[in-house]
Specification:
This protein is an alpha/beta fold and 614 residues long. Helix content is 30%, strand content 25%. α3 crosses α5. It binds adenosine-5'-triphosphate and magnesium ion.
Length: 614
């Protein structure tokens, strides 16, 4: 493919903005259709429908159409923290997915049914997910370790009669007793779950409840089976994922087949994958929509995926060893893990031979210039790329589309703002370059998700379009520069007042993290006894002692200051590893914590209280 220059990419983005429907019509070719759509769109946003009349099946796109020429090609590699590996060929995938499809069908799963997945990152997660798609079902994806009540609520919300899980999982050297947790949830709460399929993984130290639980290894059909893929329509839901819960109670979002079409285009643009060739590693647990990339585009584009079970920070050298082991070409990972690599030190990227690696794509939070700089210095031959998405949108809001062209990277920016993205003022008036405001999105995008259980889109309209009619509101604050690069300065809810100015958290955090001794930082404004104060929470790099005074001096040298500095071991994070600044603010101002269902580890709250009240 011809690579564009920056000006050519900007021209292309402008052309799409002028004639979006033309572009989206062309984009339908990203997947194979069983019945071709006859028109690009119908109706008005936000209730607009896409690819009218088109029918297809994602599992069929992923496996069946690729099978003849790729039987022996590896579709996925699996690896765990102890270095155990397994290769799954396209033929294996076809074989396993058909067996699971048969089983689910026998259990009554049909088109339009939701099936819940609560699983570690193991090959069976891929088989079940693809099998659900094969039957035209909807995946409801859940994080491990949610509070029992939250998980029960989500089972109810998704209406799944079938839950697929595993006996246990392994993370950071410990075992997670998943089945025990499921038993607890299902005995303490009322849910629609009738059958639980348990992938035993060779263990037997867990209970099987009669008439409810089925051990996968016992009931999996033997031998070669073929289950015909169901046709689904472009606007049919395919997957439900929850937003991260960074700013409030997580929202259940469903994405449709049309989303797969648009996001496949986007992933090609941001990863620049070579169809049929590249090995791609997505570092994501099940639950985060990003995990869906494994089933949405990797097999579809005849690539080889890597799934890793566990925590990549478990051993310093794991990250580079995985890349070396499978000759990984492209990595897609969350910001926190990139910060973690920096914190672990250069061995994390140098222990293994990473010469196969071309690009690392960041997603999740603004990538600090300090982290970017460190990654560049320690991996000079690897392109560090960025992409800014939200669960609801399913498409990059901004990105460095290295798959489209050779463009300059600007540290601190998430990349070029994509189609129809604007920065507006308090009244919703679009702002020119270099002025800070609210980031909003055009509603003309097939990747746009919808709220689950919101058939008339009443809740959607209220949550996303009432603040700025005609746009979808991101809740993010930022600006774009003269070249069209977007800078996310933070969440609007987290804006800090400094000397009468509105400052995004990123502006101060970015400076803190450029200090080589600091791994992570979170800055919040809060009220205590009617005084407004700004506090910075600092996580030093592994094995480093840092003093409050040295942080204060470092900030002062760069022209900034905060009222309070707290040195902590870790920050409160969501399951998708984002910093929950609202909890820091609530702790500091002695206010109720609000919804904490997305908090990764509740113990962090007491750790923080101890530091704050010292
Ligand atoms: P909730 O909506 O439940 O409060 P959330 O917004 O964190 O949680 P997600 O949909 O997982 O839920 O995350 C989307 C948000 O993540 C964006 O609105 C943005 O703030 C942030 N984000 C994602 N990627 C990037 C990136 N590359 N650069 C800057 N910010 C990013
Ligand atoms: Mg959000």
């Amino acid at each position: 493919m011809e690579l564009y220059s920056l000006s050519k990419i900007r021209k292309f983005i402008k052309e799409v903005e002028e004639n979006p429907l033309k572009f989206w019509w062309e984009t339908r070719k990203m997947i194979k259709w069983i019945v071709e759509p006859k028109d690009v769109a119908e109706g008005d946003p936000p209730k607009i429908k896409w690819y009218i009349g088109g029918k297809s099946n994602i599992c069929w796109n992923a496996i069946d159409v690729n099978l003849d020429e790729n039987k022996d090609k590896v579709a996925f590699y699996y690896m765990n923290e102890n270095g155990f590996t397994k290769a799954i060929t396209y033929w294996d995938l076809f074989y396993e997915v058909n067996r699971v499809s048969y089983l689910l069908k026998e259990l009554g799963v049909k088109k339009g049914d939701t099936v819940s997945l609560l699983m570690p990152n193991i090959p069976e997660a891929l088989y079940f997910a693809l099998a659900i798609y094969r039957l035209g079902g909807i995946i409801a994806m859940h994080y491990l370790g949610l509070s029992p009540q939250t998980f029960a609520e989500r089972l109810n919300d998704s209406g799944s009669k079938i839950l697929v899980t595993a006996s246990k999982g392994f993370r950071n050297g410990s075992e997670i007793r998943i089945k025990d947790y499921v038993d607890k949830v299902l005995s303490e709460y009322k849910t629609p779950v009738e059958k639980v399929i348990v992938v035993g993984r060779g263990f037997s130290d867990f209970n099987l409840v009669q008439n409810r639980d089925l051990l996968y290894e016992d009931i999996a059909p033997k031998g070669k089976i073929y289950v015909k893929p169901e046709e689904i329509e472009s606007n049919d839901p395919v997957i439900i994922a929850y937003t991260s819960g960074t700013t409030g109670k997580p929202k259940g979002i469903y994405s449709s087949l049309a989303y797969i079409v648009a996001s496949t285009w986007a992933l090609k643009a941001v990863l620049g994958f070579r169809e049929g060739e590249d090995v791609i590693w997505i570092l994501s647990d099940l639950g985060w929509l990003t995990w869906g990339g494994n089933i949405h585009f990797i097999p579809q584009k005849r690539l080889t995926g890597v799934i890793f079970e566990g925590f990549i920070g478990y051993k310093r050298e794991l990250f580079s060893r995985v890349i070396e082991r499978f000759n990984v070409n492209l990595v897609w990972m969350p910001t926190t893990l990139l910060n973690m690599l920096k914190s672990l030190g250069e061995e994390s990227v140098k222990a293994g031979d990473i010469s196969s690696l071309r690009l690392i794509l960041n997603t999740g939070e603004p990538l600090n210039p300090g982290t970017w700089q460190w990654l560049r210095e320690n991996m000079p031959d690897v392109v560090i790329a960025d992409s800014y998405w939200m669960t609801e949108y399913g498409f990059p809001i901004a990105a460095t589309p290295f798959g489209l062209g050779e463009i300059p990277y600007k540290p601190g920016s998430a990349g070029l703002k994509f189609f129809g993205v604007k920065v507006v003022d308090d009244d919703g008036k679009p702002l020119p370059p270099n002025q800070k405001g609210y980031i909003v999105l055009s509603m003309l995008n097939p990747a746009m998700g919808r709220l689950w259980n919101d058939p008339d889109m009443e809740r959607f309209i209220k949550i996303y379009t009432s603040r700025f009619p005609n746009y979808v509101y991101t809740g993010d604050y930022g600006f774009y520069d003269n070249d069209g690069y977007l800078y996310v300065l933070g969440r609007v809810d987290d804006i800090i007042l400094a000397g009468g100015n509105r400052v995004g958290t990123m502006e101060i955090e970015g400076i803190l993290v450029s200090n080589p001794d600091i791994a992570e930082a979170a800055v919040v404004g809060y009220n205590r006894n009617n005084n407004y104060r700004v506090a910075a929470f600092i996580v030093p790099k592994a094995g480093i002692n840092i003093s409050i005074d040295s942080v204060r001096n470092y900030l002062r040298d760069k022209g900034y200051s905060v009222d309070d500095i707290f040195i902590v071991r870790r920050l409160p994070k969501t399951k998708s590893a984002k910093i929950m600044r609202r909890l820091l603010r609530a702790l500091l101002s002695n206010e109720p914590l609000g919804d904490i269902s997305a908090l990764d580890d509740i113990n962090v709250l007491n750790e923080l209280r101890a530091v704050i009240n010292k």
